[in-house]
Amino acid sequence: xxxFTKMLNDSASPDHVAGARVVAAFKGxxxxxxxxxxxxxxxxxxxxxxxxxxxxxxxxxxxxxxxGIMLESVDGQQHLAQVKEAVKCGKPMWIDKPLASxxxxxxxxxxxARDAHVPWFSASSLRFSDIAAxxxxxxxxxxxxxxxxxxxSSGLDLAWYAIHxxxxxxxxxxxxxxxxxxxxxxxxxxxxxxxxxxxxxxxxAMRPGDGYGALAFRAKGVAASPPNAEDAYRPLVVRIxxxxxxxxxxxxxxxxLETMEFMDAAxxxxxxxxxxxxxx
Length: 280
Hints:
Blueprint: E1 3-4, E2 20-21, E3 24-26, H1 34-37, H2 40-51, E4 54-56, E5 69-71, H3 79-86, E6 93-95, H4 103-115, E7 120-121, H5 130-135, E8 142-148, H6 163-173, E9 177-184, E10 188-195, E11 200-206, E12 213-218, E13 221-224, H7 234-246, H8 253-271, E14 277-278
Parallel strand pairs: 3-4, 5-6, 6-7, 8-11
Antiparallel strand pairs: 1-2, 8-12, 9-10, 9-14, 10-11, 12-13
């Protein structure tokens, strides 16, 4: 939930975000997830005391106070219901990952926003990280991305945390995956996608996992992300602010939905003992 004000200095660097500030918030929280209900009061207290953010009783009360809405619920199961309320404001929406907990909910979110003519986007901060930037190239013939892979217990299990690594792979290869296979063990998941034109992309989601990285394959060699590459939130926040100003998402809605289709196909592949599953 954020108020975006025009940047006063046209000569400011493109990552300047001083003209944006959070002014109002609605305290949600999910009773289904300890990661939510154990932390929401602490976060709310910090916003009130340190940042003087006003709290309102519901999403509808935000409409007149803000220029853009950020749905930050950690539980993707809540996002569809929240989007139904948020689109009534007619303001651009940022929806934190995962977009939804199921592919069906993700598609319904896209439909509702489209019918309401409300721009939206959702992405992991890994899309805009130094890791992705170090290996992204039009010459890539394939890629491997890895990271922590704790699984969710409802909906798409990869959407809980492995979505970061899925998004990293898509930042490197772009959309166009046609078929997915998945091998699952207690220690890790290996999800392999076949892209149009013969490119191969692999996600390795590890349990436990510590840190992210990527390799990109090219005709003239292999590019590797640097050790301890930066994966901070600031580059994502810059894109959110710019999106609120322009209404143009830095990641297309179609690509975001494809990442959900990728995870859905991976889950169906696992249920079929690793059989290949085609994306729609």
